[in-house]
Amino acid sequence: MGVNGAGYDYDVAVVGAGPGGSAAATGLAQMGWRVLLVDKAAFPRDKVCGDFLSPRSLRVLESLGCREALERARPNRIQAASLYLNGEPVTQGVIPQIEDLSNYGYTLPRYVFDEALFRHAARAGVETVEKCEVTRLETDADGVALHAKRAGKPATFRAALAIAADGAHSVLARQLGFENRDSSARIVALRAYFDGVEGDPARAEIFFDKTYFPGYAWIFPLADGRANVGLGIVQDVYQRYDINLRERMLHWLENDPAARARLGKAHMDGRIVGWPLPTYRPRAGGNFAERVLLIGDAGSFIDPINGEGIHTALESARIAAAVADEALRAGQFGADFLARYERAWRAAFDLDLRTSDFIVSVVKNRPMVAMWLLVLKMIGEKAMHDADYAATCGGILSGVVPTHQSLSADIIVKTLLNGPDFWGRMVGLNAESGLSGVVGAGVNAGLTVAGEALGMVGQLARRPAETVAWGLDVAAKGLGVLGGLIRGVGKE
Question: Domain boundary residue among 247, 278, 309?
Answer without folding.
Answer: 278
